Each structure stands twice: as structure tokens, then as C-alpha cells.
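Review session, final week

We close the course with one last complete record, chosen because it touches almost every idea we covered. It is 3'-phosphate/5'-hydroxy nucleic acid ligase, a protein from Actinorhabdospora filicis with 395 residues. Go through it on your own first, then we will talk.
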Amino acid sequence: MPFHKLPGETAPVRLWADPATVEEQALAQLRNIAALPWVHGVAVMPDVHYGMGATVGSVIAMRGAVSPAAVGVDIGCGMTAQLTSLTASDLPDDLSRLRSAIEAAIPVGFNMHKRSVDTDHLKTGMRGWYEFWQDFEDLAKPIARGRKGRAMQQLGTLGGGNHFIEVCLDGADRVWLMLHSGSRNVGKELAEFHISRAKELPHNTDLPDPDLAVFLSGAPSMDAYRNDLYWAQDYAKRNRAVMMALLREVVVKKFPKATFQPEISCHHNYVSEEVHDGQDVLVTRKGAIRAGEGDHGIIPGSMGASSFIVRGLGNKDSFESASHGAGRKMSRNKARKLFTAEDLAAQTAGVECRKDGGVVDEIPSAYKDIDEVMALQSDLVEVVARLKQIVCVKG
């Protein structure tokens, strides 16, 4: 679809959504972002909705600056998916035991491993395990002090909210494994620490929204933030790799002949150093994936809707980006007031998953229609596979 533009801003804002369908709070945020002197441009994805400081579903290219709130507090949050050799005919009719085995192997919610999981044993393919944990000591001292043990035990855990682990089928009845998670509590604490630090800097005193406070290139505060940011992004990627390795172990125990294709993995809350329009820029994707030409990515729906494996088309107008999912259309509190566990059970019929009041805020009706979202970004990605979950694990 041709993108829409917000008129009269300092930097161009391109929307892959009809502005009339975007909440006014989110539009106000986009105007505030575009007015920042460091912003080169903003691309807005079709799953856009209001967030802290910057909208969820926004891609912001800045010159010599980065706003930690424009990354999101779950630094490095993203998706991993893997095609297996199994087909639907290999699976039992009753999937409850498979779901229970996944929940036993991978801690969910506030739970964590009793001891750190050795990724060398799991063969995640990620090198530098000991070097990675040595770098923990170089993180912001108020966060690193006394937290290493917990961070190690949380590596390879799901968390709660919209994070999930799924077993899915594609159009050819092939079995896929898919999961969504981020940098757990340590990433959140690092994000909140640096957002607070940025707000104290003199150049941020007159911003239209204090949550848009930025760090400037060349300053020690920027160097400190980028050190912690990149570590947290690595932690999030390792977290998903460990979970996927544990998930493969569960599958192999149940189906010994199962084999696996290489993983597809992508962040959707992160910062990347890129070149756009001939300029070196720092790109923050908050609820958006990179969709460079040929890049594989994952765009999930809700716990009762389809998800998509996609290939990027390299659209330069979007800073080579696409949406990260369906996007919420109502708050968690509103969803809890409007829907019941019975509604959740009806909307997740045929899926082996929790159907209790504790996850009503994740009901499919709380999210935008994923098919409509995909139709709005047909110039950003092409669909490789459409997946439908048959097992969904949530915290």
C-alpha cells in the first residue's frame, strides 16, 4: 500500500496505516518524535499503538542520538522460529502432555531455572559463553551489583505478558516451533536506569515529552548506554536460543526421529547502526523488525490467530522495516473488564493452551486483525509461510 504522511513535521513521518484509525495519543507521540532536532525520519508500522515516550510500532532514524525509551523497556525482545521434520500426522490427538513437558522444561512467568543453564551443553551455536558473562561486570554498577546470579538463572526463561512458546502447523501441515521473549528483568532494569539518566541531561530539559530524552554521540553517557544496550540485546538473543534448545530437547524426547532446520530469529525492540539516504543513522525499532531485501523475519498474531514467516522486500521508505505483530487494540485492563475466561476458551478453540482468567488480557480480541495488518504491509514483506498454533504456552 502507499504510505500516508503526517504533514508539517520537522522530519518526515510515513505511516503504513490510515491516520484516521490511529489513536490520537499515538499520533501526538509521532508528532513529538518528528519534532526532535536529531530525527532523520520516522516510519510507522500498521500495528502502531500508544507506548511510553515512543509509539509501539515505530522506526526512528536519528543522527548522532538515540532515545532509550524509543527502544522499549524489554531490550532485545523478539522472535525465534524453527521448522521441524515432523508433520501433523506425527502428533498425538491429545497435545496436553506435550504442553506440560514444555512447561516443565522452560520456566514461565516469574519462575526461573534453579541454576544457570550451560549453553555449551545445549549446543545453541552461540559462542563466547564465558566472555559474555565476564562483560556483565562492565554494566551499569547500580544494576550489575548483586544481580548476576539472577540474570544467569533467568537466561532460558519465558516471562509473562505477551511472551509465548508455540507449536504450529503451516499450510503443508509441517510442524514449526516458535517463541517470543526478550531480555527478562535485567534488560528492563538497564532500560529504566538509562531512561532516568537521559532525563537528567541538560539538552533534554525542553523536550515535548520527557520520556523522549536522548543520549548524544561522543558523550560518556552514550557510550555507557550503548555498552549496556548491546549486552542486553545479546542476552535476549541468547535467552531465545537457550529456550529453543530446551524446546528441541522436549520434542526429541517425544519424537526421537525429529530433525530441525536452521533457526530464524529477529529482534523487534532494538537499536541498529545503519545507513539510510546516504547518512549514518542510529535506527531504533520499537515493535518492528528489520525487513531488508531477503531478510527472514517473524510476525506473530495473537494466541488464537495466525503468524507469518516473512521475507523482507527492502523498502527504503520504511527504513527497511516491517511490523512486529498484530499490535494491541485495547489495554490489558480494558480486556480484563470486557472478556471472561469463557470468551478466551471460545476464541482459542482447538489450541492446547491456558484458558483461565490469568491470561484473559491476551485474548485474541484484544489485538488487531493480523490479516489486515499483513495486507497493509504487502510492500514491506512477502509471506513465506503462514502458521497456526496448536499448542501455546504462556506465563
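Two points worth writing down before the exam:
The chain is about 30% helix and 25% strand.
Residues 143 and 178 are 31 Å apart (CA to CA).
Good luck, everyone.
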